[in-house]
Amino acid sequence: MLRNMRFTNPELQAKVEQWVADTGCPVEDLVEDLMKGYFDELAKTQKTLDSRYDDIKNGKVKMIPGEEAFARLKAKSEARRKARK
Fold it and tell me: For an engineered disulfide with 13, which of 7, 38, 40, 80 has Cβ 3.0 to 4.6 Å away?
């Protein structure tokens, strides 16, 4: 069914064709493995988000305003740059 699959992105199509050529793995198996991994990762992400939401809702985690979070990240980046020099 998928043997004649064509992607609209030529670079992606080339990568799929190269993978199939290099591994000898049928495109069907590649797509099945990718989809399984995608859905596994999606379920893991959903579980993490649900847990974090519960932590916020229950007061276990304090939310940080966006500007403050950005300032903290910027300060960490600057400190790392200075430490490298």
Answer: 7
